[in-house]
């Protein structure tokens, strides 16, 4: 099934948000993991589950990141479903990106046209890199930085 992820400060990892109550997310960014190959037997289920997650989200979604670390491969049906999903998301002005694809999956995404369908530069080596790119594109959602205490004669 599709699992929504949040960032943990412990181990600098992205983990299942249901198992990580204190996990951090960014407004407008949905990070998901599909822990299977994407093939004829499950591709539509992936797309349907992701759409349901997006429809249940209270705030507007700008980007969806697929953490592909656990997705070893995609067949023709899987890539066709991804292309349809990307079109569905683009119609809603949502950017779809992939993080951490293995070499085989990356080749399939390139050959099938999925990578070009996502748009240039939308494959990242890690979820953290994808999140950094999201923050660059949407700086208004960056977490507030704590104020630095003032030192010197005025303090």
Summary of the model, kept short:
The chain has five helices and six strands; from the N terminus they run E-E-E-H-E-H-E-H-H-E-H. With 155 residues, the chain is an alpha/beta fold. The model is unreliable at 146-150 (pLDDT under 50).
Radius of gyration: 17 Å
Task: Assign a percent range to the helix content.
Answer: 25-40%
Which residues sit in consecutive blocks of at least 5 with pLDDT less than 50? 146-150
Major sheet: size, sense and barrel closure? 6 strands, mixed
Order of helices and strands: EEEHEHEHHEH
> What is the chains' assembly state?
single chain
Q: What is the strand content?
A: 15-25%
Strand order of the largest sheet: 2-1-3-4-5-6
Counting helices, strands and paired strands, the structural category is alpha/beta
What are the defining features of this structure?
155 residues; six-stranded mixed beta sheet; alpha/beta; 6 strands; globular
List the helices and strands and how they pair.
Elements: E1 2-7, E2 14-16, E3 29-34, H1 43-56, E4 63-67, H2 76-91, E5 95-99, H3 103-112, H4 114-118, E6 123-124, H5 127-137
Parallel strand pairs: 3-4, 4-5, 5-6
Antiparallel strand pairs: 1-2, 1-3
Describe the 3D structure.
By secondary structure, this protein is an alpha/beta fold. Helix content is 36%, strand content 17%. The chain has 5 helices and 6 strands. It has helices at residues 43-56, 76-91, 103-112, 114-118, 127-137; strands at residues 2-7, 14-16, 29-34, 63-67, 95-99, 123-124. Strands 2-1-3-4-5-6 form a 6-stranded mixed sheet. The longest helix is centred in the middle third of the chain and has 16 residues, at 76-91. The chain is globular and about 40 Å long.
């Amino acid at each position: 099934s599709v699992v929504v992820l949040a960032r943990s400060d412990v181990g600098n990892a992205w983990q299942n948000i249901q198992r990580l109550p204190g996990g951090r997310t960014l407004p407008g960014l949905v990070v998901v993991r599909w822990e299977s190959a994407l093939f004829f037997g499950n591709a539509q289920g992936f797309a349907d589950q992701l759409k349901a997650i997006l429809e249940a989200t209270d705030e507007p979604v700008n980007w969806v990141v697929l953490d592909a670390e656990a997705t070893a491969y995609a067949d023709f049906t899987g890539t066709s479903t991804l292309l349809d999903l990307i079109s569905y998301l683009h119609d809603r002005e949502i950017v779809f990106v992939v993080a951490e694809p293995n070499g085989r999956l990356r080749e399939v995404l390139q050959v099938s046209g999925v990578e070009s369908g996502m748009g240039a530069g939308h494959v990242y080596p890690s979820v953290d890199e994808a999140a950094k790119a999201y923050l660059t594109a949407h700086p208004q959602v960056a977490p507030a930085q704590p104020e630095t205490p003032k030192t010197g004669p005025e303090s």
